[in-house]
Amino acid sequence: MHRVTICKIAACFGAAALATLASGCEAVPRDADGWTDRIVRTGVLTVGTSPKADAEPDAEKAEMEARERRAVEALARRLNARVEWREGNVHELLTALEQRELPVVAATVSGDTPFQQKVGLSQPYVKKGPHGKPYCIAVAPGENRLLLLLDQTIAAQQREEGGAR
Amino acid sequence: MSGATVGPPSAARPVSPTPPGPPDGEEKNNGAKQEHSGEPSKEQLRDGFRQMRRLSWITLGYQLFASALLGLVMGGSQAVKTEWLENMLALVPPIAVLLTYQTENRPPDDRRPFGYHRAGTVAFLVAAFALAAIGLFLFFDNGLTLLRRERPSIGGYTLFGRTFWHGWLMIAAMVVTAIPPVILGRMKSKVAELLHDKPLHADAEMNRANWLTNGGGVVGLLLVAAGFWWGDALAAWLISFDILRDGVTNVRRSLSDVMDYRPSYIEKDEEEPIVQSVNEAVGGLPFVADHRVLLREHGRYFFAEIFIKPFGDETPPATEATRRVREAVLPLDWRLQHVAVEITDDLKSADVLTREELDIEAQDGDGAGG
Questions:
Q1: Which of A50, A85, B141, B366 fits as disulfide partner to A107, beta carbons 3.0 to 4.6 Å?
Q2: Is the pTM of this model over 0.80?
Q3: Chain A residues lying within 8 Å of B223, measured CB to CB
Q4: Is residue B266 within 8 Å of B201, Cβ to Cβ?
Q5: Which site among A144, A149, A153 would you substitute to test the B interface, given the most B Cβ atoms closer than 10 Å to its Cβ?
């Protein structure tokens, strides 16, 4: 391609980006779909979760789920919202998340989930859980503000609770 | 063949770049000599080769650093991932340059009577194909990401107890890695021109365009920050287009050597003046009635095959005529490494045997008919 043309395209591109940034500097990064704003507006954070039907209680798992729950609730507090849990099958929930039908899925999703390219994964709230895997909370793809807020919440939680695990 | 082919088939002059000596058999080639004024001195060439190696090693080190840095921060950004790949691929041209330098002046042997000048070309060609293939793959892959409207998820990055947007880190890495290659590229361009080094020139060109892809990536990430998910995919797509373009350009450039193109400038597809000056020098010799010169590129060097039809009455002996041709031609350019002279009464012997002459089609027709 002609060098000058490339320069022109780059310049236009840059100007557009700067203009949009200047108009919305207070909340960068912004969500592609605006889920954070919606949560703040409605006061409801919908979170997908899968019901636990374990016959024998597993202390490690229970502790992990409690940690996940606390992270979600802390995020809701930060957004002045209440958590509305939506129970379902993990695969269906993640598919719904991929379609951006709900903002967050907290269903002990491991870091190597097949959905890792399709949805956003938070920093692990448990770095080494069952099977030695990290466990994350999933966020609708492209909702980068929400993901950043969640990551900050988890990081704060790790500091408070000692995130050595 | 009717004439005497004289002149060793292997490198005809000392293989290290030697500056032209004063043409002692000076005939009427003065004009041609002066016309080709850009002939570098021995010192310039020595410096050039030294610089070429130094710059290539610096490039290697730099590209390793840049790849490591981008690999560390790439996260969920398609643009940064593609830029990381581009930096990894940028390791290839300097390796080709250094490989060429190591091998090109090895003495010819029985199996490789023309020497090793093209060893680097082979490496360059293979690398160029790989570059083009990866570029093509990325071009489609990133195009699909755009079409499928896949949104990049870029979250937080925790450093020294603070969690900030990972995108800022990516942008910083893209900015840091944008400028050094441009400077390196500019320096390499000059050396490549001096040494007629195609891989080095391709490398310089890739480097010089680097800021564009980095800039594109930064703008893409800024768009993502502003909530426009397509910024990242579009930037990644443009970067992969750049990789593809580099690949295709490099394939074309390396093919010019493999296909025995006439010597041309490395920075543009125009004939080098050496073609004209060799023709003039040979045509200017008093015993030459007619001539035909075939010049081709062989790595950074030029190889010439010269066919001469002498005047019947004043032809010197073949050895003497050959010596005078070589003396007239070799000083014209340091890159002219090999000259084969054939004295013939039929210039058509320079033609290759065509299939038409074999009458294959006619005979096939006969066979079918019978």
A1: A50
A2: no
A3: 16-17, 20
A4: yes
A5: A144
